[in-house]
Amino acid sequence: MGAEVVVEGLTKSFGKQAIWRDVTLTLPPGEVSALLGPSGTGKSVFLKSMIGLLKPERGRCMINGVDIVTCSERQLYETRKLFGVLFQDGALFGSMNLYDNVAFPLREHTRKSESEVRRIVLEKLDLTGLNGAERKLPGEISGGMRKRAGLARALVLDPEIILVDEPDSGLDPVRTTYISQLFLDVNSQIDATFLIVTHNINLARTVPDNIGMLFRKELVMFGPREVLLTSEEPVVKQFLNGRMDGPIGMSEEKDSATMAAEQAMFEAGHHAGGVEDVRGVPPQMQPTPGMPERQGARRRTDRVMSILHSLPRAAQDSIIESMSPEEQQHYGVHAGGRPAPSQRPAPSPRPRSGNGERIEGRLDDESVARLPGSEPSGSERGRS
Amino acid sequence: MSAPASTRKFPGSGALRETGQLFALGLDVIVGIFKRPFQLREFIEQSWFIASVTILPTALVSIPFGALVALELGSLITQLGAQSFIGAASVLAIIQQAAPIVTALLVAGAGGSAICADIGARTIREEIDAMEVLGVSAIQRLVVPRVLASMLVALLLNGLVSVIGVLGGYFFNVVLQGGTPGAYLASFSALAQLPDLWISEIKAVIFGFIAGVVAAYRGLNPKGGPKGVGDAVNQSVVITFLLLFAVNFTLTAVYLQIVPAKGS
Ligand SMILES: Nc1ncnc2c1ncn2[C@@H]1O[C@H](COP(=O)(O)OP(=O)(O)OP(=O)(O)O)[C@@H](O)[C@H]1O
Ligand SMILES: [Mg+2]
Known about the structure:
The structure holds two protein chains of two kinds. Chain A has a single domain (1-82, 159-384), classed as P-loop containing nucleotide triphosphate hydrolases (Rossmann fold, 3-Layer(aba) Sandwich), CATH 3.40.50. Chain A is 41% helix and 16% strand. Chain A has helices at residues 43-50, 73-80, 98-109, 114-127, 143-155, 173-190, 201-206, 225-229, 234-241, 256-267, 295-307, 313-322, 325-331, 355-370, 375-383, and strands spanning 5-14, 17-27, 32-36, 58-63, 66-67, 83-86, 161-165, 193-197, 210-215, 218-224. In chain A, the strands form two sheets. Chain A has a six-stranded mixed beta sheet with strand order 6-7-8-3-9-10. Chain A has a four-stranded antiparallel beta sheet with strand order 2-1-4-5, with helices on one face. In chain A, helix 3 packs across helix 4 (114-127), helix 3 (98-109) runs parallel beside helix 5 (143-155) and helix 4 crosses helix 5 (143-155). Chain B has one domain. Chain B contains nine helices and no strands. Chain B is elongated. Chain B starts with 12 loop residues before the first helix and ends in a 6-residue tail after the last helix. Chain A binds chain B through residues 13-16, 48, 51, 53-55, 57, 77-78, 80-81, 83, 85, 87-89, 91-94, 104-105, 108-109, and chain B through 1-2, 4-6, 121-122, 125-127, 129-137. Residues 43-44, 88, 165 of chain A line the site of magnesium ion. Residues 14, 19, 37, 39-45, 88 of chain A line the site of adenosine-5'-triphosphate.
């Protein structure tokens, strides 16, 4: 089973610049979590703090009873062996070819024979679609390949905790989905705890069990995926839709004057960006058929059911809805049984398979409502 | 690796902190030298690399250096009427002072800058972070072999500079200034003594250590992107030079106190 990571009250600043304050979250063992947030909110800094590369001023980060923030050098090196980390740019060793890069952790930390090392390295390179490139130097391959090679190196020791910084940057959408599939397959095989930092909304909506978001120097929320995906929080909605209207600006956050000015602009018909109205909880990606069942997902269902009552109503509905009838029966809940929340119409219960249509339906509604207003793109679309 | 942000600011605190961190790295390196496993391959590769970038310039610099010493001393000593001491004086000057300094300047300028650029590039590409995260100490793995290599090369180069310098001095004195070969050679041992050779080599090793540690320190802490690496290389050479002159002065003063000059 993967290790649990408990972060409590972590605070980090560089000199006078505060990056984030009081971040508290628990990465449940064996589950896949994702961390979202606008550029520059310190997601990479957070990952680096979790592995002790940066020292936060306050707070704790407990892994197997060791506090990464305050432990001794020796403990730190020991604990780091539990980690597999994929850095934002792959961070391959430039002087070694891909094969030696991936073999590096094995040669450093295990007494495996060279033939065994070879078997494992080729297997991991194959897994990440890099066979044939093992003699190339990192300078001679594309950014996406570097990323995948970095992932192969992170996986080679079968780590208990895997931290991934933006797996999607530099990858095309198809490869991003393959990588997501790979994460879930690896997770089902070795039951490692994942934390994925990403800007990719598709990935964020379909891969993780839990989602958190950093904004305004704080962790806005962290919890089961349904909570963030059904959230009505303006920041979250704006981020998921990739639109300009909302609290997130080009430089971190907007003041109220800018926001009002922009609001007027959007009302006057300026396109706020974003293609479709992203809402609702799409079904989660599953491990490839033939892979073992994800233990983390099973534990997660138990965990989520035990905290169900504390979650927002919309999230509750969506969780219950996503369960099979047997599971619903097992936990003694049923989909239609809950009254709709009073403040706003909840997404009405619908069968899982009808998901694609649902989004289309929503999109149509929205476009009809918006078309007359949004001059530039609307008229263009009309003409073509 | 990062300084706590809560430290109070006072004038010069930045410089003090940098100095402290430099010393801390120096200590870490010394401790690392005795830790197993020793990175033999990296050490040999780096020694070879540093030697290859320094040998030729060193040889080229040390010939005129020996000549310069011989010429300057030659004309001065001839006026004093002590021609028979020319050999002695130039050997002393070259072995005790010139050789370690020339060596150090070259190890810092050619070897140190290469080390700094290499480690700096690895730092900004996050290779160092990646290595630390893989549970491998970058100091142990990268810095220690480089510092040892620069010490070894400094030691060897020092010998080379001494020999070439003395030969150069001999050539200029005997061939160009009409000195007598026998007198030049015979006076070698008049002023110079064996401890002079020792201190020369000890200095060279210490200078090699300083050059390596400063280069590694600046390389591990570049300020922001690739431009920072360029600045770091530049600074590492300047800092090393300054440190070397200070350390050389101290070592020479201490040496002259401990080992009395021959004949006095
Ligand atoms: N070593 C450092 N020294 C000083 N400031 C830093 C350092 N590293 C990061 N920062 C600052 O911390 C902030 C967060 O950086 P970080 O790289 O974590 O952003 P991010 O959320 O990962 O963004 P992105 O999504 O673009 O990767 C930035 O404002 C950056 O200027
Ligand atoms: Mg980042």
